[in-house]
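>> Question from a student workshop board

For tomorrow's exercise we were told to take the sequence and the ligand below, predict the bound structure, and bring the output to class. My setup keeps failing. Could a helper post the expected result so I can at least see what it should look like? The ligand is zinc ion.
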Amino acid sequence: MDRVLGQSHAVNLLNLQLSTGRQHHAYIFHGPVGVGKFTTALAYARVLLCHNRETDLAGRVTACDTCPSCRLLAKLTPPDKDAPQDDDTLGLTTAHPDLHVIRKELARYSDDAQTRNRKLTRIPVEVLRSALIEPANLAAKLDGGKVFIVDEAELLNPSGQNALLKTLEEPPAGTTLILVTGNEDRLLPTIRSRCMRIAFSPLPDQAVKDWCDQHARDLTDEQRRVLVEFAAGSLGRAQLITRYGLLAWTDVVLPALDRAAQGKPTADLGQQVFSFIDSFANDFVKAHANASKEAANKQGADLMWSLVATRARCRLVELAQRCAPDDPESGEAALSPWLATIDATEQAQKLLASNVNLSITCDHFAVSLCRGLCASM
Ligand SMILES: [Zn+2]
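>> Workshop helper replied:
Here is what the output should look like for this input. Compare the format with yours to find the bug.
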């Protein structure tokens, strides 16, 4: 697990459990998308499944690299979540008989035609039963127990989560469940209370800069600076930004926010924002078989609100540093447009979560931005 980047809190906690022999049977790995939760889950599974765990000089328990389980897992690399070859997921499940990765993409391989042909917006309960609940009750094929990783666990609907409760409550011996989620709020309290929750944080900017050095060498210094800000500590997001050309968003949206903060809002900002998200979602659906437009819209909108909110937070920090301590009123006046911007993104997130149409949500975002600005002038 020492190869996991920038998540020392989570990794130390897991190492401590391994070295004291007090592993939990169920975990929730939660935190922003693209910061290494799934990679950590795989690395932890590798140690749990190892038949001859070793202790290194620092007292950390590690996998041996030579037992049958380690040899099977050595062939695998964590799947690139944004890569179109989603079958990597199946490589993980079939290469090691006791490591099971449950993702919405498994629905494509269901015996049931209706489940198979459904757009991938959820993890169907049928998939959960056949890929987790039933195999959890069978004996391990090798000697090291069984690990089930549910990726994007927030995509289990309440009936799926309820179906999981019994397995979480009385897990068969030697079985470990790891629920990986970027949106822990969507898990039922009964699920959360039965798991050990481990928080993952955004990665330091330096990690994104290092990633740029390897994967985005063509960028100018300014583009690189903007990408690091937009990625907000997520390598998964940095990949999406470069792959789908989302730096173009920043050329339009960020200057519009600055103009709005100076009292000169852009008339059609709502529709510009909508068209960026819509075209990202169309490209994403084209690149991923069975991807749903609705889920891609939400993914694009999350990126957009994050871009806006991150810029607002950066401006707030800059302004707070420049504010004169003996003039709190002018300081407050300078900060308010950016506080109003953050409010507008939060409202937009809530609207989209309650299934309001994307175009209306974007217009509402632009209107509430203007309203907040007027109130702050
Ligand atoms: Zn081993």
